[in-house]
Amino acid sequence: MLNIENLFKSFRSKAGAIDVLNGVNLEIADGEVVSILGPSGAGKSTLLRCVNFLEYAERGVMTLDGYRVDAARASKADILHMRRSTAMVFQNYNLFQNKTALDNVAEGLLVRGISRAAARDKARGMLGKVGMLDKADEYPSRLSGGQQQRVGIARALALEPSILLLDEPTSALDSELVGEVLKVIRDLVRERITMLIVTHEIRFGREISDRVAFFDEGAIVEYGSTESFFNSPQSERTQRFLQRYNQNA
Known about the structure:
This protein has a single domain (2-92, 163-248), classed as P-loop containing nucleotide triphosphate hydrolases (Rossmann fold), CATH 3.40.50. The chain is 40% helix and 27% strand. It is built from 9 helices and 10 strands. It has helices at residues 44-51, 76-85, 101-111, 116-129, 145-158, 175-190, 202-208, 226-231, 236-248; strands at residues 2-13, 16-28, 33-37, 59-64, 67-70, 86-89, 163-167, 195-198, 211-216, 219-225.
């Protein structure tokens, strides 16, 4: 499904280059859910943005559904393919404030040339899927954070991506709203939708994931089955991370 090989990314500043991804290698199978855990600033969100070409990696190869893209030499066609084969769910929803929930979901379909009637029909179906059909005509300002995030998930699903990328989907939510978003994601897991999810909800990541990747300082320190990751971690860095998690659980 998705194979990432030796991906590098740095950001430039007045102080010089800051390395964010340092040779990331990751493989995700069709229908698999992979959670990315790790401390803040480890490069987790940047990885998702590089897969979607919201950020441009300087080096590495990504192969999605057999389509190989050299990150350093990606053409416009390559970038379009990756963007059309993936869909992002953002931390802060990123909804158009001047559009209703229905129009937010339909917008990406219209851009792809689907008729307005067909796009709105599909958007209604996706809103129903996430329990938001009754809010189809509401604007984001009249929706709670959890409701806005569910609209964001519906928008991503409407594009029928090969892989769904979720970047800390509950981080901007009050604790009482987290559950409604996690329920939607659990439903997607049962449908075997391929997902790569960055999350700080460690218990949830353990529940839904087939495999877990632990990030630190721009690299994957450990990657394996959820059971082996939590029950018999090999890396000392992972062990320290899980010790703190277990102490706070």
